[in-house]
């Protein structure tokens, strides 16, 4: 059955109050399709203006502004190398003070212990500020890291069977040395320079570090002296031990590193970096550390 048309209509069917049901249904269907077409052709900005920020795309995946304050938490794995070679030199020099053996042969300069490498985990936090000019990003940050288990130790014995002093006394020296070192925690203050590439910010760092250490050094010198026949000097067999230990020793150093920040949301970023820290020599010990870490941070 044909649907009735209104007078003056240009060919579009419209439902009359008394039109059959199937005619009214066709009219509603056509009206719905027309409305959907109008919505689809409307500019996206008409609707985006009324959307909340997180829905209308306030974060651009191709551009990130890095300027401002930032802070976060970090976790890493460290590899610490400790040079124990001179850790007991002062103790040996004290034991052999005012002797011909030390004056002539300086056993205190002998390398009594090797280097040692150990691994441990660290946990920490950082806070910083960035300035940005186009792609160039310069910043400064401070970090604190607590070490869970970074302990190093070494022990060894060095023997010289015959050391003849100017008084013709033959000295048989045996030096036994032991040392241990533990890094408790450390802090850094460093400058950063980076180049922004959209969501990615590769950077380099250079700064200062301060570490807190516990250490213990012990040296034992056993000296057997045999004078020549007829000498007024009596044979001797002497053993002496000296120790040096301290907890919470504060030691300075320097830091250098490379890393990359990756923006995952407008104000949230992930970080991966490598860091090298070298501490100044103290108590005859010298320690350096390589760390690989990841972090999550927020920009403010």
What does this entry look like structurally?
The protein is mostly beta strands. Helices cover 13% and strands 56% of the residues. The protein is built from four helices and nine strands; from the N terminus they run ααβααββββββββ. It is rod-shaped and about 130 Å long. The protein starts with 20 loop residues before the first helix and ends with a strand.
Core attributes:
single chain, 300 residues, mainly beta, eight-stranded antiparallel β-barrel, 13% helix, 56% strand
Derived structural class: mainly beta
**Rounded Rg:** 39 Å
Shape summary = rod-shaped
Helix content: 10-25%
Largest sheet: 8 strands, antiparallel, barrel
Mean pLDDT: 83
Strand content: over 45%
Number of helices: 4
Secondary structure layout:
Blueprint: H1 21-41, H2 44-48, E1 68-83, H3 89-95, H4 100-105, E2 115-133, E3 136-147, E4 151-164, E5 170-195, E6 200-226, E7 236-263, E8 268-279, E9 286-299
Antiparallel strand pairs: 1-2, 1-9, 2-3, 3-5, 4-5, 5-6, 6-7, 7-8, 8-9
In short, what is this structure?
The chain is mainly beta.
